[in-house]
Write a structure and sequence with these properties.
By secondary structure, this protein is an alpha/beta fold. About 40% of the residues lie in helices and about 20% in strands. It has two domains: about 140 residues, Rossmann fold (3-Layer(aba) Sandwich); about 140 residues, Rossmann fold.
């Protein structure tokens, strides 16, 4: 099935740029777009909290978005890929799940929070956290990312810990195979050079089958701050996209966990692709790791 890119949409530059970037991606992978417009992102439906009158207010808010929906449909008609429009008052976990199920395989795309657009920044930051915590594939696109050509140079941030991709992330592998012509794996160690850690990170990526179509180059970086180390890797490798895995926790703990991934989504100068994992694999013993590396 064709990949659907569900783009958090609007008419200000961060959202418009995300649409342009997603359109280029969709052309490259023979996919389609859904332009999703929401007013808020929330863990709970605000209309359910006000009782019986909530549905009335919900309908009124949706009716007030009629012209917005028409303008988005006009925008969609001008794109060079198949595109449709979805309207919701709130991006809720249930809304995200329903969209992902209906349009799957699906990738949520949003503009990186931009301090020059504070209203958009606050809402998209919450959307990014809600989607990441809900274990959906997410691509955050800064306005500095070139939108005229598809990304080709991918940097994967990895550590020693093995991982298994969630089904929603596995479904993106054909698209990655179409896009990536060069892949690098970056391992960031805390203050000391760690060749064994680099090798373990490469093994974890290969074992996941994320990049079975490629023979990645391995690079190590030293930094006590993992996010800063990965940002250094982005600059030195001139990567077009950074790929990170979102470890699975409980929804609530992940939503409020200030993780490396959250910092990258807000600050990385190139797009960040977050791929959710399934339940964590057990750590390999030193002997198991050495045997696995010898078999590669």
């Amino acid at each position: 099935m064709a990949l659907t890119l569900i783009v958090l949409s609007g008419f200000y530059e961060p959202a418009r740029h995300a649409i342009r970037y997603a359109e280029t991606l969709a052309q490259a992978v023979h996919g389609q777009l859904v332009l999703l417009h929401v007013n808020r992102a929330s863990l709970f439906d605000p209309y359910e909290l006000v009782g019986a009158v909530g549905e009335k207010y919900h309908r009124q808010e949706l009716q007030g978005q009629t012209e917005t929906a028409a303008a988005l449909r006009e925008l969609a008609q001008g794109l060079h890929v198949p595109a449709s429009v979805e309207m919701a008052t709130d991006l809720l976990p249930d809304v995200a799940r329903e969209l992902a199920a209906r349009y799957g395989p699906a990738l949520f795309v949003l503009g990186q929070p931009d301090e020059n657009h504070p209203d958009f920044a606050g809402m998209t930051a919450m959307c990014a956290e809600l989607l990441r915590a809900g274990h959906f594939p997410v691509l955050a696109v800064p306005t500095t990312a070139p939108a005229g050509k598809p990304p080709r140079r991918f940097l994967v941030g990895a550590d020693r810990e093995p991982f298994v991709l969630a089904p929603a992330a596995e479904a993106l592998r054909p698209a990655l195979a179409l896009l990536a012509t060069e892949v690098l794996v970056a391992h960031v160690s805390d203050g000391v050079e760690d060749d064994d850690g680099c090798a373990a990170a490469l093994h974890a990526v290969r074992s996941s089958a994320l990049l079975e179509f490629s023979k990645p180059e391995l690079r190590g970086y030293c930094d006590g701050d993992y996010a800063e180390g990965l940002l250094t890797a982005v600059q030195e490798t001139r990567a077009d996209v950074v790929v990170v895995v979102g470890r699975q926790r409980s929804f609530m703990s992940d939503l409020f966990h200030r993780s490396v991934t959250a910092r990258l989504l807000e600050n990385c100068p190139v797009p960040v692709l977050v791929l959710p994992t399934a339940s964590s694999k057990p750590r390999l013993t030193a002997a198991e790791h050495a045997a696995a590396v010898q078999q590669e």
